Known about the structure:
Largest interface: A-B, 50 and 64 residues
Radius of gyration of chain B: 24 Å
CATH class of the domain at 31-137 in chain A: Alpha Beta
CATH topology of the domain at 31-137 in chain A: Alpha-Beta Plaits
CATH topology of the largest domain in chain B: Cytochrome-c3 Hydrogenase, chain B
Bound molecules: iron/sulfur cluster
Shape of chain A: elongated
Strand content of chain B: 15-25%
CATH superfamily of the largest domain in chain B: Cytochrome-c3 Hydrogenase, chain B
Oligomer: heterodimer
Strand order of the largest sheet of chain A: 2-3-5
Helix content of chain A: 10-25%
Distance between the termini of chain A: 56 Å
Number of strands of chain B: 18
Number of helices of chain A: 4
Number of domains of chain B: 2
Number of helices of chain B: 19
Radius of gyration of chain A: 23 Å
Amino acid sequence: xxxxxxxxxxxxxxxxxxxxxxxxxxxxxxxxxxxxxxxxxxxxxxxxxxxxxxxxxxxxxxxxxxxxxxxxxxxxxxxxxxxxxxxxxxxxxxxxxxxxxxxxxxxxxxxxxxxxxxxxxxxxxxxxxxxxxxxxxxxxxxxxxxxxxxxxxxxxxxxxxxxxxxxxxxxxxxx
Amino acid sequence: xxxxxxxxxxxxxxxxxxxxxxxxxxxxxxxxxxxxxxxxxxxxxxxxxxxxxxxxxxxxxxxxxxxxxxxxxxxxxxxxxxxxxxxxxxxxxxxxxxxxxxxxxxxxxxxxxxxxxxxxxxxxxxxxxxxxxxxxxxxxxxxxxxxxxxxxxxxxxxxxxxxxxxxxxxxxxxxxxxxxxxxxxxxxxxxxxxxxxxxxxxxxxxxxxxxxxxxxxxxxxxxxxxxxxxxxxxxxxxxxxxxxxxxxxxxxxxxxxxxxxxxxxxxxxxxxxxxxxxxxxxxxxxxxxxxxxxxxxxxxxxxxxxxxxxxxxxxxxxxxxxxxxxxxxxxxxxxxxxxxxxxxxxxxxxxxxxxxxxxxxxxxxxxxxxxxxxxxxxxxxxxxxxxxxxxxxxxxxxxxxxxxxxxxxxxxxxxxxxxxxxxxxxxxxxxxxxxxxxxxxxxxxxxxxxxxxxxxxxxxxxxxxxxxxxxxxxxxxxxxxxxxxxxxxxxxxxxxxxxxxxxxxxxxxxxxxxxxxxxxxxxxxxxxxxxxxxxxxxxxxxxxxxxxxxxxxxxxx
Lengths: 175, 557
Ligand code: SF4
Ligand code: SF4
């Protein structure tokens, strides 16, 4: 009987009452494991580039200014918040934060740039703590390409300190 | 069983069967002489009554100097997935088309031609399928010598797509892209005679993203699952796990049991959000928004649950080769059980109301017909096939993860119309709840990821079927060097189901078009940005992130 079905359907609605949340007027805390924007810890990062090599969205650039200075740049444009960077980081330098309200028309609001001072070694020109974390990652089945020939590394040294690697992108809205 | 099938083929075709690889009692690879591909496929499809799954091409020239074509079939009752392999010369590759005898192969063969330049000789409808209209002829992006980021010269934006002639007496009505009731980028050119659709031409692949190319050129084994998850906004976890399974199957990686159970649970949680969503959408498409809202309300706690377990409502980021990334704590298990109990009782009410609702029934009965014969010819899968009484379900037929350790019923219905699909999907919700409960009872302790200590072997073929909410997803991978696959092919259920649409809507009313198509869930992503213009003065203001946030929090703005 159709009329009975309609009554049943009305009952479902009445029982449920109003369920819409008043977001964005009130925000609700996110669950503990929530994966929001990744945040880099300047102090912990050793510049191994594991995160850059494993980011499926290719959102992290590694830029060697000279032998001692390596710049890590998180672009924040098409990051999918998958959290792979945080997974593979051998130093736990990346946290998947609880930030998800990322609407902005200034992309630098989301970007992060780390200037890393690298130790040098006479043999390879670079030193990592202990045995290379890249080796460890590779053993776990992750790809760890030859950085010097890698697609992330832009060899240009035409930057002055304090100059952004990428020009900031302000999104122009049509009037 | 597998060797019996092989023997049958050998007896019938003798030396045309060149070589076989019996992987185990569920997988079989048979190399054949390409000249006999037509009779062999006909025999397998008609006489041995196999189900056609997909055809896959691969450029193997850097390794063997040849092109490869795989025709994938399945024997569902015997639990066998089965691959016919043809090796074609590296120069001017051609193969006899099987679309004449297996209509379901139509798109796959056109794709071979577009992406790899393998000519399906004698194809009944050899039109371009995947490549954009502006793409110049003779450039095949899936060939190994075509760089992933290359844009070929001669990209001709002016080039028009040549539609077929409109049949006499018919008017062509464009449906999509972005039709008000189906906001998905695909175009149907309907040939309409009065109220009735007499035929249609499909033009799709407008959001083709080249992910298969990326996987074999830029990304690595553990990057691809994250990308595969974005193939679809609804069956994301399905695709990412299917990729993992295909690689694991090829490379012989054994997944730890706890990870298998977690995979099963998350796949079912995905089904639990998808089915209520689709039932809601089906109601919406026939103009019944009350139930649409209620179905979505009932689904919402499942999304919160997924967020608690995996850190995201929808893109779970669960799979990596050899295991999973997230674990279940005892608290999470208790919470999940509570959510399931609530869902079960609320969904029971919906089912009780909908299953007797004469209005919904009237709008969906006899609409979008797909009977058993059509399912066989076009390779239709999932609720579409089950709604037509075809008893297939990859979870039972080709078990993966922990599905061989749980009991569940495969729901079928015999009306073969949209109503049948509504019933199937409504009732499958209870089966999913049941499966998750069993998984919690049986889940062992142990590691989450297999210990992979060496590089995965290259050149192995792996394939797997996995039951997405919409039907069987079939993933195929050839493992490769540099920690990335040499070839990966993802066949989503819609790839086959969409090919059945012209037959499903033929001689039906144009008003039923959207509900016939309704099994395809629309998903859109958008990012809103904001700029304000004072109308009186014309002054513009751009808002910073902090300002936007505080504005959105205050009710005054
Ligand atoms: S969260 Fe994922 S997409 Fe974003 S930077 Fe990290 S690895 Fe890349
Ligand atoms: S993986 Fe960690 S330590 Fe290595 S570069 Fe990235 S943030 Fe730094």
